[in-house]
């Protein structure tokens, strides 16, 4: 006997769809601006691809959530973007940003797909994964063609497979410190690259933010990104391994805001959250103890920065309340009145 029923959206499905809706509306604002300022025809093609699938995602999420009578978040609208603002970022930086966006989307959407129970939600994220894969492929190939793609350093080919024989493999502060292993190099390069991009992005935001408090927050973020970049790059340089280059020179001198303070604060909050997650992943694949200490220290700094940013958003009424469980204590209090 086959039992058929219309399952309600689970907490994870609601949370994921709600989040994807918010980010999709933000992405559309960004693309509308970049379509006016980017000059490279190949990058423009990629931007049109992003605009198409982001628009379709909003439509699909609206249908799914309305089917369960669940309210949509406000997200971001045309009031959060000024498409006529002068160019703030170069074409090269926009392309690197798109590549990073594709990589982050692949990671996040694979998790969202795996946590989807309903076929319509799983199908939605399966399609999203395909789109993010295509986006990453297109932007990676174009970045390579333009000579701005960062490759991780080469390492020697061993003569044969071997096993770790000493606890010294884990050491990092005292004694003979072993060379970095491949997974450690990968994460150090990736984290340096992300902070170089983050520093450039937040430099532009600090120039155009309207609120004095937001500008100071962005300036602090720029300092943190620069510091984290130097930490990762210095570890690589100690072993004569190359890292990505800073790209703040790709930011123009414009002081006209293309985006609202609300959108820029939301965007940085998302990048900080993903950075904390990436540092956690990096710790899990970095056996050398000095790297673990570095990551733990840097995560603490990002967490404090994220908290301060959240306070600014709350003070200004910019933070939408995410889906949450029922407050049983509050319900009982109402019943007692």
- Gyration radius (Cα, Å) is 22 Å
Count of distinct structural domains? 2
Arithmetic mean of pLDDT: 92
Total helical segments: 9
CATH topology of the largest domain: Ferritin
* Helix content percent band: 55-70%
- The counted number of beta strands is 0
Distance between the first and last residues' Cα? 48 Å
Strand content: under 5%
Provide the low-confidence segments as ranges: 1-5
Summarize the biggest pleated sheet. Answer: none
Q: Which CATH-level-2 architecture of the largest domain? A: Up-down Bundle
Task: Specify the overall morphology.
Answer: globular
Query: Would you list the SSEs in sequence order as H and E?
Result: HHHHHHHHH
CATH superfamily of the largest domain, by name, is Ferritin, core subunit, four-helix bundle
Would you kindly provide a written description of the structure presented here, covering whatever features stand out?
The chain is mainly alpha-helical. The chain contains 9 helices and no strands. It has helices at about 10-35, 40-65, 90-115, 120-145, 180-210, 210-240, 260-285, 290-315, 330-335. The longest helix is centred in the first third of the chain and has 27 residues, at about 10-35. About 65% of the residues lie in helices and about 0% in strands. The protein has 2 domains: about 10-145, Ferritin, core subunit, four-helix bundle (Ferritin), CATH 1.20.1260; about 165-315, Ferritin, core subunit, four-helix bundle (Ferritin, Up-down Bundle).
């Amino acid at each position: 006997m086959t039992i058929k029923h219309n399952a309600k959206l689970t907490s994870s499905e609601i949370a994921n769809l709600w989040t994807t809706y918010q980010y999709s509306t933000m992405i559309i604002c960004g693309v509308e601006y970049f379509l006016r300022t980017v000059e490279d025809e190949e990058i423009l093609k990629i931007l049109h691809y992003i605009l198409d699938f982001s628009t379709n995602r909003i439509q699909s999420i609206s249908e799914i959530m309305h089917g369960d009578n669940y309210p949509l978040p406000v997200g971001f609208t045309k009031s959060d973007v000024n498409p006529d603002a002068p160019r703030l970022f170069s074409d090269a930086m926009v392309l690197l940003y798109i590549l990073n966006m594709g990589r982050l989307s692949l990671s996040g959407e694979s998790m969202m797909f795996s946590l989807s129970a309903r076929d319509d939600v799983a199908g939605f994220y399966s399609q999203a994964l395909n789109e993010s894969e295509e986006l990453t492929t297109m932007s990676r190939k174009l970045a390579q063609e333009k000579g701005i793609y960062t490759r991780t350093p080469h390492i020697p080919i061993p003569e044969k497979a071997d096993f770790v024989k000493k606890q010294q493999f884990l050491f990092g502060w005292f004694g003979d410190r072993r060379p970095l292993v491949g997974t450690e190099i990968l994460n150090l390069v990736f984290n340096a690259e992300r902070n170089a991009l983050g520093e450039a992005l937040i430099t532009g935001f600090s120039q155009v933010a309207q609120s004095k408090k937001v500008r100071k927050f962005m300036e602090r973020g720029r300092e943190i990104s620069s510091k984290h970049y130097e930490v990762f790059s210095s570890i690589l340089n100690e072993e004569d391994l190359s890292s990505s280059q800073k790209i703040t020179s790709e930011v123009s001198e414009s002081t006209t805001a293309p985006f609202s303070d609300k959108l820029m604060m939301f965007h940085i909050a998302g990048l900080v959250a993903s950075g904390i997650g990436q540092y956690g992943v990096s710790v899990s694949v970095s056996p050398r103890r000095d790297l673990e200490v570095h990551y733990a220290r840097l995560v603490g700094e990002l967490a404090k920065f994220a908290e301060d940013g959240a306070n600014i958003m709350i003070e200004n009424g910019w933070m939408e309340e995410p889906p949450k469980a029922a407050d049983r204590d509050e319900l009982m209090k109402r019943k007692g009145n």
